[in-house]
Every structure is written in structure tokens, then in C-alpha cells.
Amino acid sequence: MRQRTIPIPWATGYGLARTLLALGTLGTLAFSDAATLFREVATVGQYPLCRGVTAGGAFCLVEPDHYDTMRWLCCLVLVIAASGWRPRFTAIPHAYVAFSVFTGISIPDGGDQITWVLTLLIAIVALGDSRRWHWQPSPPGLPRSEGRGLLALLGISAIVVARIQMAVLYFQSCVAKLPHAEWADGTALYYWVNNYDFGSPGWLRPMVNAVVHNPVGVAAMTWGPLVIEIALAAALLMPQKVRWILLPAGVLLHLSIAVVMGLWSFAFAMWAGLLLLLAPLGHDPDLGRILRAVSRRTPGPEPVHDVPIDEPVKEHAHA
Predict the structure, then answer these.
(1) Is the pLDDT reported for residue 251 higher than 90?
(2) pLDDT of residue 202
(3) Which residues pair with 133 in a beta bridge?
(4) Given this model, what pLDDT does residue 291 score?
(5) For residue 53, what pLDDT band results from cuts at 50, 70 and 90?
(6) What distances in angstroms separate CA 299 from CA 186, 192, 307, 316, one per listed residue?
(7) Exposed e or buried b for every residue in 71-87, given b needs 16+ CB within 10 A?
């Protein structure tokens, strides 16, 4: 009987995505006090609203005087999740914190929503992850048990759903801009970088204005993101070598948005989504070997040789 195989989902690639998601939410909670996060919104009410499903959020479980205490408890959960310790046990608390932030704070952005969706899907993956740290290499094979195989299939399915979610997100982001004249004629970024709320910071404004006041520069800044977004939307239809090329392009796109507009939690969420979208299923880079390679390239003090200097030195490859 012909057997079908699937990649093992419990790898360092998905672990890095977990860490990025946790760091994005951690930044929001650690650098914003309760008075900033929970405010009254006109025509809506005082946040957290604690209505329906949102009443299950962490900040609805305490009185307003204890919001800061709950905020720091959530930060502790996020630090543990970001560290990669015991993903099977920390993934669901991490998803709960992401849900509590998205539904609880008064002005969530798109990054908070993306983080909640991706952490929920990643929690499904982590249910079968028995590693102590998500930085450890994936196991070489699965035990011959139906339960373990089912968990692997469930995990891979969750990652596939996350990939489809990211592709649809980039497609919608690109297509939704096209009917607007400013995006069509290449001037939209001129207005965005000079916006009072989301414009570039003062130290960066002279450099950015020098670009957006040039017709070619503002057109490149406006149309460039559209090209990257539509390419990312179609990434699942492209060979893997093209996806690796798109990864740094996507990372730089969201880094630019974070630096210019200050949307750092959004950037971390999208970087995590990019890893899930563009890396192969079950991608398991040997981070230890990468770090060792970087350290070998870093110049250091000249070694003291106990053997003749012209004698070849043998290096052993580490698995």
C-alpha cells in the first residue's frame, strides 16, 4: 500500500514566527500604560467593552484599578512564549493574551488582529510539539502511532491555513488601494508621510520629503509596495527559490512602514506571517550552525599557534 508523507511541522521556522508574534504584543503592553490602552471611544464606550465573547478577555477579569497588574502578568506570559520554552504548554496562554489585547484595548491596529489569528493557528500546531524549546531541531521522524501522525497532519493543516490567510491579506491590501486616485497616480505616499498622526518622525522627515517631492521618488514609494504585495499574494504559486527572494523584500517593506509610521507591532506580526507564507513547510534552519558561521567570520585576536604556522588546520563540521 502506497504511503503518503507530510513534513513534520514542529521546527525552528514556526518557532521563530511564534517569537516574533509574542514580541510584537509584548512591545504594545510593556511600553503603554493602562491609561493609554484602555480609554473611552466616542459612540462606542469605555474599553474594555466586556460584551459577549470579549467578556472572556483577561482585562475583563479584573477591576480597572488592576489593569496594570494584569498587563504585566500578560507580559510575563509573552516573555515565556517568546523564549520558546515548552510550546505545547505556552501556546494557548499566548493566544489568550493576543485575544485579550485585540478585544480589550481601545484602538487596536491591524497587527493586533493578525497576531490573534496567527497565534490561534500556531497554538494548533504547538499541541503536538513535545520539544523543550522551539529552537531545537525537529525530531528526525514520527513514532509509529496514529495519534502522533494525526497531530502532525493537524499542525501542517494549520500552517497551510495561515499561509492562505496571509496570501489573501496581501491580495486584499493591494487591490483595495487601486480604486483610489492617489494610489493609481503614484502620489499616495506624499500624503501619508506628511500625515499628522501617521507621518514620518521629525528626524526622518527631511530625508523622506526629499524623496516624495521628486515625481519619480514618490511614484516608486507608492507603487513599490503594491508590486511587493501582489507578488506576495501570488507567492504560493511560485517556486521556492522565488519565495526566498520575496522574503527580504517583504521584511524591508514592513520595516520601512514601522520606521516611518511607527507601526512596530504591525511589523512584527507581518514578519511572522511572512515566515509562515514563504518558508517551506516544516522549515528547520540550523540556528546553531548559522550563529557559529557568523562568529567564525567575526575577526578576533590572532591565535597563538603551538604548531608550525604553515600546517593546515582542520575544521570539523557540526551537525
Answers:
(1) yes
(2) 86
(3) 85
(4) 52
(5) very high
(6) 46, 43, 21, 19
(7) beebbebbebbbebebb
Residue 307 has pLDDT above 60, yes or no: no
Q: Is residue 310 assigned to a domain? A: no
Q: Is residue 318 part of a domain?
A: no
Domain containing 86 equals 12-287
pTM of the model: 0.87
Number of other residues whose CB lies within 10 A of the CB of residue 62: 14
Asked if 250 and 278 count as a contact pair (C-beta separation under 8 A), the reply is yes
Map residue 288 onto helix, strand or coil: helix
Residue 159 backbone phi and psi in degrees, to 5: -65, -40
Quick one: cell of 157? 493543516
* Cell 507567492, residue located: 235
Q: Is residue 309 part of a domain?
A: no
Residue 104 near residue 58, CB atoms below 8 Å? yes
Closest CA to 31 of 100, 78, 82, 96: 78
Whether 90 maps to a domain, the answer reads yes
Burial tier of 63 (Cβ tally within 10 Å: 0-12, 13-18, 19+):
exposed
Q: How far from each other are the two terminal CA atoms of the chain, in whole angstroms?
A: 34
User: For 249, which DSSP code?
Assistant: H
- Cell numbers that stand for 18 in this block: 511564534
CA–CA distance, 227 with 174 (Å, rounded to integer): 8
pLDDT digit string, tens, across residues 95-151: 999 999 999 999 888 999 999 999 999 999 999 999 999 999 876 655 555 578 899
What is the spatial distance between Cα 165 and Cα 211, in angstroms, rounded to a whole number?
A: 33
CA atoms within 13 A on the CB side of 130: 7
Please name which of 99, 63, 77 lies closest in space to residue 30, comparing C-alpha atoms: 77
> What's the structural domain count of the chain?
1
Measured CA to CA, the distance from residue 297 to residue 313 in angstroms comes to 16
Instruction: List strand residue ranges (DSSP E) for the chain, in order.
Output: 40-41, 45-46
